[in-house]
Amino acid sequence: MQETTASSRPLSTADQRSAEVTDFMLYEAELLDDLNERQWLTELVSADIDYQVPVRETVERARGTGFSTSTFHLRETYGSLESRVTRGETKYAWAEDPPSRVRHFVTNIRVRPHESGDEHLIRAKSNILIYRTRQSQTAPQMLSGERDDIFCRENGELKLLRRIVYLDLSVIGTHNLSLFF
User: How many domains, the chain?
Assistant: First the structure.
């Protein structure tokens, strides 16, 4: 009789979903770090994307989380993301020419079924640290926060349907937000 170990057991559906989302996020970070923004957009982002970075305020606990529901650093659709990617491919993207050097560190990935019960949707939260340097600057810019993502299946492929990035900073000390979270 062959002994079954944890490593030889088949993955459960939840484990498979978690592994797939983790692989997605690591591949996404690689594409963005390597400035393959067009590939990121066309391969990984749904045409129905809702991409948000709400403004954070410093408030007392009794007043809520401190994130605005009506004011955003970024509120993007596929069309506006497409415009940003296209602009970055031209000689007129002077804010990013030469381009920043960026590293996306994605950690604490938590995957769960979507609260609607729709088996085609997956919800995941993750922590993000973006490390960025520009030209010959010696002080890096760092942005950290939590991403709340919803993924969907399109033609059998996982796609990013919604991303809300809750930054830890209430004041962003970077000269532009031309990067993707």
Answer: 1
